[in-house]
Amino acid sequence: MSDQTATRTDPATIEAQPAVWTKKHLLDVDELSRAEIEAVFETADAMKEVLGREVPRVPALRGRTVITLFYEPSTRTRASFELAGKALGADVINISAGGSSIEKGESLIDTVRTLQAVGADMLVMRHPSSGAPYLVARHMHASVINGGDGCHAHPTQALLDAYTIRSRLGDLSGRRIVIVGDIAHSRVARSNIWALSTLGAQVTLCAPPTLLPPALRRRAEDDDGELLAMPPVRVETDLDRAIEGVDVIMALRLQKERMSGGLLPSLREYASLYQLTEERLARAQTGALVMHPGPMNEGIEISPAVARSLQSVVEEQVTNGVAVRMAVLYLLARGKV
């Protein structure tokens, strides 16, 4: 690599993009402007080049401590944040609810105060209660990153999804994207609605009426106005109709752990009506991207053939997740409030 290339791609030399970023925390994407999202993307481009080096390490966050605090199981999000922090030279500490003082009844606020006292500079947290990261952000001097809170938000997943689409298709303006599955319980869907709409994409949501939030359900039935406090989206309950001519199909995991009350007659019926199959994929644009936040329930929301097809970018999403989370850590470390 030439000296010129090394200077251009070293995160320590990035000056223009952090000037756009002024956030101390990343709690959701609904608070990000298009310029801020694009700052994440441009920084992630540099981080991908770092990850492609023989030694994928830079000292950008040397001396900083990143703590991951997860009250729910996670593989992709937690591992990618750990890899991202270490690639930037930070000290990374992982804490789970199991085997910690949390099991002994310690409150969330007491836990984060303890973490702050031991020197946390950034806290990545996942919690089953919507809004928990917002509460923590009010009680910490450290930067807080929402790694998923209840059914509310998952900002870094939305950013890596949008980044993956941008990497393949370029500008998202006017691109037609359908999100299909358990919309009602999906923090991924909600954050993606904001991120993709902010970038100019046309978003369609598709699900059985029982898996749509009440406001979206009424919109699907009546189609008589825009939703409040949400970007305009199209709502469909027929996947064959929703998928016609789209550029991207994002299948969501059927979140059985969040569902109760018999919202679906059976998994077989759901798979019959809403599984992304090769026949349904043929209705989309030629070469349409297939996405999934993982883990996939193959044979339910997506067929094995589609999951492994050339149009699937699921593995690319995971790879891009490290670069995007490196970008978020880097920008937050240099953000100003």
Structural notes for this entry:
The chain has helices at residues 3-9, 16-20, 34-51, 76-87, 108-117, 132-137, 155-169, 187-198, 214-222, 239-242, 267-274, 278-281, 304-307, 314-334; strands at residues 65-70, 91-96, 122-127, 143-149, 176-180, 202-206, 234-236, 248-251, 289-291. The chain has 337 residues and is an alpha/beta fold. It has 2 domains: 3-154 and 319-334, Aspartate/ornithine carbamoyltransferase (Rossmann fold, 3-Layer(aba) Sandwich), CATH 3.40.50.1370; 155-314, Rossmann fold, CATH 3.40.50.1370. The protein has a 5-stranded parallel sheet with strand order 7-6-5-8-9. A 4-stranded parallel sheet has the order 2-1-3-4. Helix 4 crosses helix 14 (314-334) and helix 7 (155-169) crosses helix 14. The longest helix is centred in the last third of the chain and has 21 residues, at 314-334. Residues 1-9 and 224-228 have low confidence and may be disordered.
In short:
With 337 residues, this protein is of the alpha/beta class.
Mean pLDDT, nearest integer?
A: 88
Low-pLDDT ranges = 1-9, 224-228
Element-level helix/strand string: HHHEHEHEHEHEHEHEHEHHEHH
**If you compute it from the alpha carbons, what radius of gyration comes out, rounded to the nearest whole angstrom?**
20 Å
Q: What gap, in angstroms, lies between the N and C termini?
A: 36 Å
Q: How many E strands?
A: 9
CATH topology of the largest domain: Rossmann fold
Per CATH, the superfamily of the largest domain is: Aspartate/ornithine carbamoyltransferase
Largest sheet: 5 strands, parallel
Side-by-side strand order of the widest sheet: 7-6-5-8-9
Shape-level CATH architecture of the largest domain: 3-Layer(aba) Sandwich
Q: What percent strand? A: 5-15%
Q: Give the helix tally.
A: 14
The domain count comes to: 2
CATH class label of the largest domain: Alpha Beta
